Each structure stands twice: as C-alpha cells, then as structure tokens.
Amino acid sequence: MNADALLDRLIEALRCLPGVGPKSARRIAFHLLERDRAGGIHLAEVLAESMVRIKRCSRCRTLTEREVCALCTNPERDDGLLCIVEQPSDILAIEQATDYRGRYFVLGGRLSPLDGVGPEELGLDLLARRLHDEPIAELILAISPTVEGSATAHFIGERAAAQGIRVTRLAQGVPLGTELEYLDGGTLALAFSTRCTL
Amino acid sequence: MNADALLDRLIEALRCLPGVGPKSARRIAFHLLERDRAGGIHLAEVLAESMVRIKRCSRCRTLTEREVCALCTNPERDDGLLCIVEQPSDILAIEQATDYRGRYFVLGGRLSPLDGVGPEELGLDLLARRLHDEPIAELILAISPTVEGSATAHFIGERAAAQGIRVTRLAQGVPLGTELEYLDGGTLALAFSTRCTL
Ligand SMILES: [Zn+2]
Ligand SMILES: [Zn+2]
Predict the structure, then answer these.
(1) pLDDT, tens digit, for every residue of A162-198?
(2) Based on the domain organization, do B82 and B160 belong to the same domain?
(3) Number of domains, chain A
(4) Are B53 and A44 in contact (CB under 8 A)?
(5) Are A4 and B51 a contacting pair at CB < 8 A?
(6) What is the CATH number of the domain that holds A27?
(7) What residues in B contact A11, CB-CB < 8 Å?
(8) Containing domain of residue A151, as a range?
(9) Inside any domain, residue B66
C-alpha cells in the first residue's frame, strides 16, 4: 500500500505502545509528523534515555534512574511503615489518593509457581532483610485481592507476623459509588458477611 | 508526588501523543519500562529518524523520506488521473478502500483566510503547474464536504475546469450501514434531493 519505508517503520514501531493497533499507530504518526515534530523529537530523546537509564531501586524495587529512589531517601517518610505493592504504578496511585507517609516495597508481580514466579522473582529475600534490619512496626499489604494476589499476601504476611510485625491489608468490600446490582456476587457476599455497625 | 525526574520527564514527553492524558502516559511509560524495553528503544530510534528525515514529496506534498514519493514514481500508476486530498492519511484510506490507480496531490489543509491558509499554503501554485504540464484528464476532488472543504474544492475545481479538465468529487449521501434516524438533517435532505432511480 504505502511504499514509504521509513513512515511504515514509524507506524510499525508505534505499535509497541499498549492498546495501539494499526489505525491508531497511523494516526499518531501523522499527528507527530504534521503537527508536533518538536514533541516527537523530544519524546524520542527522553524515551531512549529512559529505556537505558531507568532501573529498579535497590531498596524498594520501584522504577528509578537512581541507585536508591526519591521515596526511599526522603528523610520525612516514616521508616516504621512499609507498604507492599505489586507494581510501581500502585505507588503513584496510593500517593495520589491517600496521605500515607511511610515507605514502599514493589514485588513486581504475584507468586505464580506455574509461570516461574517464586519468592526470588518478587525480591522476597530483599524484603526479608529489610524486615529484619529496619524498625518496621507495620507491614501494609496493598496487593490486589485476586487468587494469586491473596496467596502472595498470605505468604508475605505470615513470615512478617512470625517476626512480631503487625501485618494489615486493604479493606475489602463494595467500592464507593457502585450500585449493588452491578457488583460481583463474591464481593457482595464478602461485604455482607463483614458488615459493620453504622 | 513522584520525585523521579527521568520517569516524570518520560510521562510528560508521552503526552505529545494524540489523546494521551496524564493517566495513559503513566500507563504507557510503565508498560514500556516493565515489559517492552526493546520496543521502546526501537521506537525512540525510528521516531528520531522520522521526525528529521520525513518531509513533503516535491510532486504531491505527501509525507515521505524521499525527494519524490513512491506513489509519484510508481510507473504503473495512471498519469491521467489526479486525486486531491486534504491529508496524507487520506491517501492511505483511499488506497485501502478503493482500486484507484491514479496519482495524488495533498493540500495539507483547507482554504481558511482567517487562519492565514491561502492558496500558497495549500501548494496550489504547484498544483496549477502540474495541471498545466501533465496529461491530466480527470481531477478527483476527495475533500471533506465541510464548509471550508467545499469552498476549497470549488476554488480548485473552477480553475481546473477552466483549463478543460474534467473535475469530479466524491458522491455525497447516506453512509452505508447508517440508520436514517441517526443521520444529520443536512445529509438526509441532500440525499433526498439527489435521490436516484433504483
Ligand atoms: Zn526505592
Ligand atoms: Zn509524491
């Protein structure tokens, strides 16, 4: 169809972006070429630098260009609180939605032996060292309540509790603004059985 | 919130992509960093090269890395047919949907004096030269039937017709698969008044 090799390569390369199919890749390519070359050049530079320089923080495993990330080195955060999340993006979500001021630890996934994801892949040896070395009073398990997530939370929580650390997890129940008739049965049953006094 | 400068810069830079707000920029950044570094590096390279090397074809004004594009140099295309489109992406749409085998000319916009878009900005001097120098039998105006688009088509069509060139435009009417009750009144009125025998 279009025999212009470089334009074709650009459209193809844009498909590494999540959710971008052939049509949106084409739309993005034309947008950048016709309306925002400066933005495209800037993106290319920052993208190249990011892909090479951003690694995992050696303390919390979140994504960072530094050896230790800004959250880990921030002296104003509470060393007594450690919040376990699955993904770096969960940190941003918690930072934006809550007033949590403790530290974080990023698993980078969930225990899934069949997929080859064991304690080592999730950095649980590093976590164990932190639980041993640091004055952590409470471990908050902010892990998705899926089957694998719950198993992962249970695995981590048991080990921490054995060391005398207080272990908590996010409350489960009906999300705010959700109509009961659209809620899945499992969540409804759980929320019903864990109902509290008004 | 997130004090990691390079990650912030990546998320910000991704917002030059059309339709990408802060949330999707963040999602794209994490996707590339965690799951597709190779794709991200490749995109950065092709993007940088494209933004610098892709220009307008000197004959048809479409986007290309060459002085003259592949469609213009293809010896199998019919020199007697010239299709006028607004944007390079319109060429791809016509190539995919039709069996048109003529040449193209890209305006890059519509006449809009108030926005400073006159005949010069649309390359109409180049088009006039082509209409004069080349054996063009039919000029097809594949321009959106908007107010400015129609004015632009009229402007171009009159000049070509004055040179004895046959000028056609895309048929206007009810789009295939459209329910009449959802069609705008203007299109319905037009389709009604230009109805044809079955
Ligand atoms: Zn860190
Ligand atoms: Zn061309």
Answers:
(1) 999 999 988 888 888 888 888 888 888 888 888 877 7
(2) yes
(3) 2
(4) no
(5) no
(6) 1.10.8.420
(7) none
(8) 75-169
(9) no
How far, in Å, are A139, A161, A177 from residue A59 at the CA level? 15, 21, 37
CA distance A59 to A105: 8
Render pLDDT for A50-97 as a digit per residue (tens, 0 to 9).
Answer: 999 999 999 999 999 999 999 999 999 999 999 999 999 899 888 888
The predicted model scores a pTM of 0.78
Which residue in B has a C-alpha nearest to residue A108's C-alpha? Answer: B34
| Domain identity same for B104 and B147 | yes
Asked if the interface predicted TM-score (ipTM) of this complex is over 0.85, the answer is no
Query: 3-state DSSP call for residue B78?
Result: strand
Residue A111 in any domain: the answer is yes
Q: Closest Cα of chain B to A154: distance in Å?
A: 25
Same domain, A107 and A148: yes
Determine, for residues A18 and B39 on separate chains, whether the beta-carbon distance falls below 8 Å. Answer: no
SS (H, E, C) chain A: CCCCHHHHHHHHHHHHCCCCCHHHHHHHHHHHHHHCHHHHHHHHHHHHHHHHHCEECCCCCCEECCCCCHHHHCCCCEEEEEEEECCHHHHHHHHHHCCCCEEEEECCCCCEHHHCECCCCCCHHHHHHHHHHCCCCEEEEECCCCHHHHHHHHHHHHHHHHCCCEEEECCCCCCCCCCHHHCCHHHHHHHHHCCCCC
